[in-house]
Specification:
heterodimer; A: about 375 residues; mainly alpha; D-Maltodextrin-Binding Protein, domain 2; 4-stranded mixed β-sheet; 4 strands; about 65% helix; about 5% strand; elongated; B: about 325 residues; alpha/beta; Rossmann fold; Alpha-Beta Plaits; 6-stranded mixed β-sheet; 4-stranded antiparallel β-sheet; about 35% helix
């Protein structure tokens, strides 16, 4: 029995490595996906294009100083526009995310000499932009510091920021990595390999296998074992790229993380084998897998929290196998839970495994 | 070794196997012969435990194929018609994979040697020729050192040379004391290989015996094949007459051939051609008559040969149809 299972694993690995297209889809494609997502998230990080308008007739030293200071702030890209109208047009066309209008009034001559009353620096942003608030408060901070410099008044209070109290914040990419890994495992099971058994049947290979004393269950376990080995290899690559290229942080126990990946892989492969065995043709198997897999990918909280879904659907969505896998993986990744905390989810995945293999072995036919 | 009693298999309302019974002895080469759709492959698949019968009893090596298919599969080797391989494995890897599916097995090298694939063992299966794939298929049937080997149309689609090679391989398997059960729609193959032949048509078993006895019983006698002398031709109507039409009062040659001793029928395969076929119960008597006719008429046939009736004739006799239709 074990000899046969091993033979299936070996057979399909040899087949895998000789089929260049499957190496492409299995390893390069997830990497490309990672690169794409990484790029998208890189651009989504906060960046401001700031257009500065000097309304004073002659360029005073303060304006120069102000513009210089703004330009030193990392998240700001600063340039000057000739008039307020042009600057506001740039804002409207989304070429600028903020417009700063320096006042036309008189400025103090030198640092340390008092001026003739407060001057107003006006900041424009598009309505309804939440990130704009952040830009505005940075500008406000700059102004305060400059003012202190001008007035020579020492700051009475400063705010010092220190990290304390355990884990630092969980950023978007930390959130996304376990989701992507869970999604990859689901995809291999429900979308990647559903053609396999149906295809072997179409080519009458199952007939050959069934003419031997080797039990169908052993054949299925061999296939699941082989695809799980491939999954873990791919997940490792995705994990490393996510961690070292995209800077995702995983705070939980990596052994538990790995064990959950293993269980998730086996569960979805078992479901995939059941789909493949029940379908009359390889094409039908692929279609059925996609019909189940795609909605699950978007409804299980891979990319965004399920809390964003309609309340009425939540009880159903929470029971999706991919939701179980995502929750457990993310919980362990965040360090907020252990295998024990997710016993319910993991038991559900185990049940899917048993049901999947059971159905597949029961419906294992050569025609 | 194999006992089949009143086997029935239905596909919907069609009786694919209609109360078939036979036994196969140890060490025998047993042939199931018939046209496509006769029920041969279905019968074989039931014996292999791949299909469940709808009625009757089937025992292979003492095990019921219904109750204990796994025990049956451990003692049989199966060569399948048109079954695929794992395309991206080599010949050796294919054998190793399937060997692992059995509890016991022959060394892979020995089997490769036996089927003549020794020098191809590192070639990917998808790069093999048709004949080589067929030999690999037979190698898979031998890998578990089976007592009974099933071959489903082993030589279909092979060129004559590959076919002869395969026949030799099958005879070798038989010399090793294994029992062989094969299906074929080639009468020639059945006569060349089989100790006993079961003729099937439309799900029923029509006759079962040694090939020579089947011929003796159902189609005794022989064919005499003549080529008419120069100057004589068979008319489009089918029967030979002297050139220029029958002379008034003279008896047509066809009638005289038909009246020869033991002749049952006269036929012309190609109207207008020189060839005439005489079906005879007793070739010796007919030949004696022919030589008397030659002497009396001064005829000299261009050629004359005698062929034993074959299973082809038996099938025609039993079903009223040609085998390949």
């Amino acid at each position: 029995m074990m000899k046969g299972v091993w033979a299936v694993v070996r057979m399909s690995f040899l087949t895998y490595f000789r089929d260049r297209s499957s190496v492409f889809w299995g390893i390069l494609f997830p990497l490309l996906l990672m690169g794409l997502i990484g790029t998208v998230f890189g651009e989504a990080s906060v960046q401001f294009d700031v257009a500065v308008v000097r309304q004073a007739e002659e360029a005073g030293w303060f304006s120069d100083w102000f513009v210089e200071t703004l330009d030193q702030i990392e998240v700001f890209t600063v340039w000057e526009e000739a008039s307020l109208d042009e600057a506001l047009a740039a804002l409207a066309e989304q070429r600028a995310s903020l417009v700063v209008a320096l006042p036309a009034g008189a400025w103090p001559d030198r640092p340390g000499t008092a001026g003739s009353g407060p001057q107003t620096i006006t900041v424009y942003h598009r309505p309804g932009s939440q990130v704009a608030d952040l830009g505005v408060s940075i500008i406000r901070d700059v102004v305060t510091r400059l003012e202190q410099g001008i007035s020579g008044r020492p700051a009475l209070m400063t705010v010092e920021v220190q990290e304390a109290g355990g884990s630092p914040g969980f950023d978007m990419f930390d959130y996304l990595l376990p989701g992507i890994i869970a999604m990859t495992l689901m995809q291999t099971g429900l979308m990647g390999v559903t053609w396999v058994v149906a295809n072997y049947r179409e080519q009458k290979l199952l007939k050959r296998v069934l003419a031997t004393p080797f039990p169908p269950g052993g054949f299925l376990v061999g296939l699941i074992g082989r695809f799980t080995a491939r999954n873990l290899m791919e997940v490792t690559i995705i994990f490393l790229v996510g961690t070292y290229v995209f800077g995702a942080q995983t705070r939980g126990d990596l052994v538990q993380y790995f064990l959950i990946c293993l269980l998730g892989s086996v569960a979805f492969l078992a479901m995939g084998m059941a789909i493949s065995t029940l379908s009359p043709t390889a094409e039908a198997a692929n279609n059925l897998g996609n019909v189940i897999g795609f909605p699950m990918m978007f409804l299980s909280g891979v990319f965004w929290p399920r809390e964003m879904m309609p309340e009425a659907l939540r009880p159903v969505l929470d029971q999706l196998p991919l939701a179980h896998l995502v929750d457990a993986l993310r919980g362990v990744a965040e360090g907020t839970g252990t295998l024990v905390d997710y016993a319910g989810e993991l038991t559900a995945l185990l049940l899917w495994t048993v049901v999947g293999i059971g159905v597949a072995a029961w419906r294992f036919r050569w025609e | 070794m194999v006992r089949v009693e009143s086997l029935v298999k239905r596909y919907g309302r069609v009786l694919a196997v209609d109360h078939v019974s036979f036994t196969v002895d140890e060490g025998e080469v047993f042939g199931l012969l018939g046209p496509n759709g006769a029920g041969k492959t279905t019968t074989l698949e039931i014996l292999e435990g791949l299909r469940r019968p709808d009625g009757g009893r089937v025992e292979v090596a003492g095990h019921s194929v219904v109750d204990d298919p796994r025990a049956v599969r451990t003692v049989i080797g199966v060569q399948l018609q048109e079954a695929g391989f794992f395309d991206l494995l080599t010949v050796r890897e294919t054998l190793e994979t399937f060997a692992a599916f059995h509890r016991k097995g022959l060394p892979v090298d020995q089997v490769l040697e036996r089927v003549g694939l020794r020098d191809r063992h590192r070639v990917l299966v998808r790069n093999l020729s048709g004949g080589q794939k067929q030999r690999l298929s037979i190698a898979l049937a031998l890998i578990n050192d089976p007592r009974i080997v099933f071959l489903d149309e082993p030589t279909t689609g092979l060129d004559p040379q590959a076919r002869r090679n395969l026949w030799e391989m099958i005879r070798q398997i038989r010399r090793e004391g294994r029992t062989l059960i094969l299906t074929t729609h080639s009468m020639e193959e059945a006569e060349a290989l089989c100790d006993r032949v079961a003729i099937m048509d439309r799900g029923r078993l029509l006759a079962l015996d040694r090939p020579d006895r089947l011929v003796a019983e159902h189609a005794p006698g022989a064919w005499i094949i003549l080529e008419l002398p120069y100057g004589l031709a068979t008319p489009a109507a089918g029967l030979p007459v002297p050139n220029g039409g029958p002379e008034p009062g003279a008896e047509p040659l066809s009638d005289r051939l038909r009246r020869l001793p033991a002749v049952e029928a006269v036929s012309v395969p190609e109207p207008g051609g020189p060839t005439v076929l005489l079906r005879t119960r007793d070739a010796t008597a007919t030949l004696r008559g022919l030589s008397e006719l030659q002497a009396a008429e001064g005829l000299a046939f261009r050629s004359l040969r005698v062929e034993q009736a074959s299973l082809e004739d038996v099938f025609l006799q039993l079903t009223g149809r040609e085998l390949r239709e």
